Amino acid sequence: MSTAPTVYDVAERSGVSIATVSRVYRTPDSVRQQTRDRVLAAARELGYVPSGSARGLASRSTGVLGLCFPDYSDPEAEHEADESDEDDAAMLYSDQIIRGMERAARRHGYALLIAASLKGGPESWVAKVAGRVDGFAVLARTVPTEDLEVISRRLPVVMLAGPRESEQLDHLDHVEAANEDGERALARHLVVDHGLTRLAFVGAAEDSPDVAARFRGYRAACAAAGLPVPDAPDLRAPMMTRAEGARAADALVDRAAAAGEPPPQGLLFANDQMAVGALHALERRGLRVPADIAVVGFDGIALSRLVRPALTTVRQPMRRMGEVAVELLVRRLGGGNGAERMPDVPELVPGEPVSLVLPVTVARRASCGC
Questions:
Q1: Which pLDDT tens digit goes with each residue over 212-231?
Q2: Higher-confidence residue: 129 or 246?
Q3: How far apart are CA 33 and CA 24, in angstroms?
């Protein structure tokens, strides 16, 4: 990669002093909006990333890799984990990716810098994190495309989960799980192996690419079985948490009762957190799982094994995703302290991005009747 642009380049391009550029990033409110916009525009054009350790960034010598992901925390789950001292029971999707990245980074001699829910332009914490690492992994739809485009000029960046977001990011390495295949296999299991025909899919209000892929898999399974193919999920939860899963289960049962119909035979949730909440809600209503209603999730978090009945789900290779991300970053950086390479990660070709789809597996447990 070319030599990283400096604060001097940004100052010259935007026609301001170096001190003004510094204030834009350190104390933006002290700079007029018009000047601030001009400086940030120049920084984007140059691909400038501010850093407290600029020399390390320019020489790729920080010895640190970065990960940025949305804040998926479930306050209910966190509270219960604190009360029962069972942190593993509330282990969420992003936590497993972190574990995989930490393990692989340590093996290659790197540290890991982690940040959640970073928003805003290059003046935000996103750029500050990127300015302190040698390579950057980011979960889909976490960082604005224009920020990633700037950061990727200076650093190798790996996108995790979801499809590629735009043509602007086609040059980035990309790792995702086989969401559509997994949901199709799960729904087919309910229909073919358990004979369930009245199903309901609970998705997310936010337009998540992973959830969209899972819904496509559900629709494909319905079509293959000759069942009605829905245009949209039966219900969209505002957040993919246990509390919202409980509310979704109540709403679907109440909706059926109001229409004078029996409740669905099976509820398919877009993630395990919601499915666990549904188990609790149905138990409160006196409905038996799976005798009255089958419940299934997606992700394969530790909690899915611990609830009763144990949750049928699709296991994602979450830790593996984190390990692969580190492997790709280290290879792009040209080394890794001689650690053994992953055989299932292809050799990199300069200028050609890698796109990997990791396989998933259906975990058949008691909540569907297995």
A1: 999 999 999 999 999 999 99
A2: 246
A3: 10
The most distant pair of C-alpha atoms in the chain lies apart, rounded to whole Å, by 72
**Closest of 360, 355, 352 to residue 160, by C-alpha:** 355
d(CA 31, CA 211): 41
Domain ranges in the chain? 1-48, 59-178+319-356, 179-316+362-368
Say which residue, 362 or 147, is predicted with more confidence.
Answer: 362
Please state whether beta strands 313-315 and 361-363 pair in parallel, antiparallel, or not at all (unpaired).
Answer: antiparallel
Topology of the domain covering 179-316+362-368: Rossmann fold (3.40.50)
- The pTM of the full predicted model, rounded to 2 decimals, is 0.76
Q: Kindly state the tokens that stand for 4.
A: 């990283």
The residues, ordered by sequence, that sit 6+ positions from 340 with a Cβ below 8 Å of its Cβ are: none
Which residue reads 């799960």 in tokens? 186
Task: Note whether 140 and 72 are within 8 A (CB).
Answer: no
Tokens of 256: 């059926």
Distance (Å) of CA 357 to CA 87, 145, 313: 29, 21, 19
- Asked if 59-178+319-356 and 179-316+362-368 have one fold, the answer is yes
Q: Which CATH superfamily does the domain covering 1-48 fall into?
A: lambda repressor-like DNA-binding domains (1.10.260.40)
* Structural element, H or E, at residue 184: helix 179-188
Distance of CA 258 to the CA centre of its chain: 36
